[in-house]
Amino acid sequence: WMAVPSPAYAQIFAWRDAAGHLVLSDKPKEPAAKSYAVAAPTPVATMGEYRTTRPTVSQRAALYDSLIEQESAANAVDPNLVRAVIQAESAFNPWARSHKGAMGLMQLMPATAREYGVLDPYNPVENIRAGVAYLKKLLVRFADNVELALAAYNAGPRAVERYGTRVPPYRETRNYVAKIRNA
User: Fold this and answer.
1) Of residues 71, 89, 126, 161, which has the active-site annotation?
2) Distances in whole angstroms, Cα of residue 147 to Cα of each of 1, 11, 158
3) Closest by CA position to 177, among listed 138, 143, 150
4) Can you give the pTM of this predicted structure?
5) Residues lower than pLDDT 70 in the chain
6) What burial class does residue 58 get, using C-beta atoms within 10 Å of its C-beta: 0-12 exposed, 13-18 middle, 19+ buried?
7) Which of 90, 96, 142, 166 could disulfide-link 148, Cβ–Cβ 3.0 to 4.6 Å?
8) pLDDT tens digits for 40-69?
9) What gap in Å lies between CA 116 and CA 130, rounded to an integer?
10) Dmax of the chain from CA atoms?
11) Is 69 noted as a catalytic residue in this protein?
């Protein structure tokens, strides 16, 4: 199968410079430069109005699908929104930990985990249960405005209120909301 040519989306050329450093470019410097074909990018998967960066039927995501459905139904939250939050927060890695201390699939902060009675934030059952309940609390607080609830999930509800009940002007928060809302 390796002998069968495949259509390339782009070419990358590689060579070593005089100091021995590897150089990658979209243009060849010399005929001896190695050439690599780059396949076309995989389309971004969308789930209704929410977006993930990977196809929704990934192996890791599928492990949590029934749990997401169960907790979403129990809290009357769109399961596709929950999937998109998990994708943005941890890429479905239950062992994810941020430099700020957020933990697990839905990246619960320690105070949020305590508030929702989570004993092990890396346990997917506890993490998703608490994360979905917290997301529902934010949706209620911001009158079902998904954009504001997402901003609050990322930056905290006080930050949203401090900026006149608008998405705070933090680059990270704006990118987070846009990433999930498929803006």
Assistant:
1) 89
2) 46, 39, 15
3) 150
4) 0.70
5) 1-11, 13, 15, 24, 26, 31-57, 183
6) middle
7) 142
8) 444 444 455 555 444 444 788 889 999 999
9) 6
10) 63
11) no
